[in-house]
Amino acid sequence: MASNELPFGPLPSVAGAISGGIEHLGLYADHGAAALRADIAAFVGLDADQVTVGAGSAGILQQLLLSYVGVGDKVAMCWPSFEAYPLFTALVEAEEIRVPLLDETFDLPSLAAAIDADTKLAFVTNPNNPTGTVVGTDEIIGFLGSVPPTCLVVLDEAYSEFVTDERVTDSTLLLPDHPNLVITRTFSKAHGLAGLRVGYALGHPEVIGMIDRTLVPFAVNELAQRAARASIDAASEMRARVAAVVAERTRVTGALRDGGWNIPEPQGNFVWLPVTADAAALGNDLERRGVVTRAFAGVGVRVTIASRDWNDRFLAALAEVRPKPTC
């Protein structure tokens, strides 16, 4: 319960698309993944030249840093957030600007205040990983209005399908008015294709063109492209699975709060225990009882919403190791 994977295998039609593509593995995939881009564009209501794909959204995030950030430039983010951000920032030898979260949530006014002329890229993670909190679309609009146009804003929406907070609306509607905005999403989470590594970015054609300059040849393989296209065709089935995960998230959240835990409202496929200094010890205690979670030392523990049986096992183990909540 550590990596936010979906507790299901591929949808039947997606599994069929994967197995049915085996005979093509002697050939290279379409490097540009034109058919997949077109399908994604139709799925989200954009033009094909506003879409690119990569090796998971993490691969696209790396491409963004390589495309837009140079040595000595600045990259801004709230923290804690996705652990890959500092790694990619270090890769391009840029300066990392961290702004603390506010109530476990991205503090957009403070993040905007930290951005200056040397800041080439800023991350907004919605929902945030690992805390699972969201900022409303109106807040994002305000943030975009206060950021200089020379700073690319990366709206990382890896978990967007799990969001039920009505303050969060369709972010693609922001693209026409904000040429410095790019949205990243993935097939790894809600679509259950983490092992195939397919992510995508949405933005202005000029931004998409810049990202494509750093695309590794054949980064999205033949089976991954087939699976992603089939998953789009099975979107209603995917949403049904997401609804099941959200229902389990609600049940687990209720059980935790009934047990005295004070946790932020989760909007991803995970819950967050902000136990601060107790995080590493709690993670170890749970692992000794066969429940592997993701502990962020000194900050908290992130727990993936899995099957009902696994979730119950986690709740039982947690009650055993921490009968008195620490947050």
Give the secondary structure arrangement, pairings included.
Layout: H1 12-19, H2 34-44, E1 51-54, H3 56-68, E2 74-79, H4 84-91, E3 95-100, H5 108-114, E4 119-125, H6 137-146, E5 152-156, E6 181-186, E7 199-203, H7 205-212, H8 222-233, H9 235-258, E8 270-273, H10 279-288, E9 294-296, E10 300-304, H11 308-321
Parallel strand pairs: 2-3, 2-4, 4-5, 5-6
Antiparallel strand pairs: 1-7, 6-7, 8-10, 9-10
Which structural traits does this protein have?
327 residues; alpha/beta; Aspartate Aminotransferase, domain 2; Aspartate Aminotransferase, domain 1; 2 domains; seven-stranded mixed β-sheet; three-stranded antiparallel β-sheet; 11 helices; 38% helix; globular
Question: What composes the largest sheet?
Answer: 7 strands, mixed
The helix-strand sequence is HHEHEHEHEHEEEHHHEHEEH
Q: Tell me the quaternary state.
A: single chain
Low-pLDDT regions = none
Span between termini: 20 Å
In total, the number of strands is 10
Provide the CATH top-level class of the largest domain: Alpha Beta
Fraction of residues in helix: 25-40%
What is the CATH H-level superfamily of the largest domain? Type I PLP-dependent aspartate aminotransferase-like (Major domain)
Radius of gyration: 20 Å
| Helical run tally | 11
Structural class: alpha/beta
Task: Determine the CATH topology of the largest domain.
Answer: Aspartate Aminotransferase, domain 2
Tertiary shape: globular
- The CATH architecture designation of the largest domain is 3-Layer(aba) Sandwich
Count of the separate structural domains: 2
